[in-house]
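seq as requested:
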Amino acid sequence: MTPKNTICLWYNHDAEEAANFYAKTFPDSAVKAVHRAPADYPSGKEGDVLTVEFTVCGIPCIGLNGGEAFTHSEAFSFQIATDDQQETDRLWNAIVGHGGRESACGWCKDKWGLNWQITPRVLTDAMANPDPAVAKRAFEAMMTMQKIDVARIEAAVRG
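struct tokens:
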């Protein structure tokens, strides 16, 4: 069944490489189909990969090889919930270690410019804590981090 809503992500020319990376890196992710251009188009030739259907953590996406007209920005990111430091480290290191770069507060950018929030559940739980003092301590701890440190968030929650 075709999903009602699909995220379309713009790439210069390497949507297939990105989709394959996401499929091997994130759980419940896969490349579903690769479609080639039936004719020449502004940023490619007939037979070039035009679109790639894939999922990231079960979310349907289409990668479009549209050329250099547009780039990704922090206005869009995937937020990936992690269960522990090991999973946080694995995903963060996969993105950053594969040509990406670190940012603040659990954000990083992959080599294609797509933004990711690698967010341990302990952080989102702390931020939703009904005790504003707990949420404040967790928030202040997070503001000092690039990759989220689960032990430091847990310590902040405890006070």
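The first helix runs from residue 15 to 25.
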